[in-house]
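Journal club side-thread
Mid-discussion, someone asked how the predicted structure for our own chain would compare to the paper's figures. Pasting it here so we can look after the session.
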Amino acid sequence: MNIVIQLQTVLAMSTCGALMGMGFDTYHVFKGKARLPLWLVFFFDILFWVGSMGAVFLILVKVNDGIIRFPIFFGMIFGAWLYFLLGSKKYILFLHRMIKFCQWFYRTVINILDILLVRPVLFLFRVIIMVLTFLYSVLLAILGFLWKVTRFVTSPFARWGQHLGKKMYGKTTGFWTNWKNWFHSKRKRE
């Protein structure tokens, strides 16, 4: 293996070490914000380290065909140490600010959608319900008035109508009885 490939490998592993440090800080910040149960934290810890090692191995395969030597570990440790020495605090501060910005942006978008969409639709719905309720009460009042007028106008004919109804009911009852008897007798004959 020539010196150029070895230097590329050490540089790539130093970058991997720094990126793993950034990934660790990112994971740690989000883990602190999420307040997950301990068993889930344990699962995510294992997932993070296995994923990190898998990514490092894939990069190692791309850079030097997966050959593992001491300078690789030195490069990773050096990259992580350099990141934690120079950039960790600034990155964590940046990450907290980005989280606050994203929360603010989310709340702002939700408020804008609430003001521009939800509230007008709810207002329109309430207006429609009020108008329909008013129209329904007006219709009930008109129908009630018409019913009272109709009862008042037809009240002299009420007794005559009741008498006529009883006569018609009596005649139809006899008709239906005759019809049933005729139908049953015809069935018996067959």
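Post-session note: The mean pLDDT is 81.
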